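User:
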Amino acid sequence: MARTNNIGLSKSDYKGPPTTLCQGCGHNSILSQIISACFEMDMAPEDIVKFSGIGCSSKAPTYMLNRSFGFNGLHGRMPAIATGALLGDPTLKGIAMSGDGDSASIGMGQFKHVMRRNLPLVYVIANNGVYGLTKGQLSATSEVGLTLKKQAMNELEPIDICLEAMASNATFVARAFAGDPKQVKTLIKAALHHNGTAILDIISPCVTFNNADSSMHSYAWGRENKTPIHDLSFIPARDEIMIEDFEEGTTQDVTMHDGSTIRLQKLERDYDPTDRIAAVQIIEESRANNLLLTGLIYVEPERLTLMDTLNLPEEPINRLKEKDLRPAPETMKKINAAMF
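Assistant: Predicted structure:
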């Protein structure tokens, strides 16, 4: 018999239909940890609402929390949808999943403003440095020197999601690597407890568009050295990249599917995530040293949320009756009198 949590639900009650993302995609690992976190925290799926924009990562609402309401919005416009929904019913817990293209390019304006308003929302960015859904173009987070199959070498400095979050006065900023599921789940749980916008920048390798064109095992080489009757793409299954025994304060090199290497550094246990100046400094230092810093970088638990700022009533707005919304005649007289 399947194990149940304290509200009588099994883990399958938190899942969705089978994923259609590429096998080995880091996004699948992130989804698994969201499912596990909600199950272990005894959260009722009906009390969670899901949001996303457009992209591989934004297909997430389909593959998790099947009993929760969800909304897949326009490219880059997810924060506006989330703001309206959560203002309508602040009793719900919002989980949003986006990507580096969805948030750091077309959606940068909305990304910045949702942090400024401190909307209570877990905002996950599955960051793979490419546009995976539209055949692997460079994205705003692509590193300098990256060459993709359909693009020339990237010569522009990348946008650092965590640095942008700090500049936008976010109250919870963290970074993780999809292949470190223990840390990812821990940070998701912390974000779900945070009363405000929690930004999780999760580095999530793309198994399809990070392979070198010069390799005889690459898709581009195969297309150029055969005579096809149709232009079909085949994506072979890959194992998800996982790391083990990654202790606090240590650095670990991780090899990607194309043979390239990224260097991860996990924050030390005694690091103070409430020190804003130190948080900005450590992000800049990691960038200068070509390190991907992981862990809870910054948290400010006391800042008022958008709901507090607007002084919303205890009863959710979407449940108020006409008599609650219609001003009394005496109130209208006072309003009209104040106009003269």
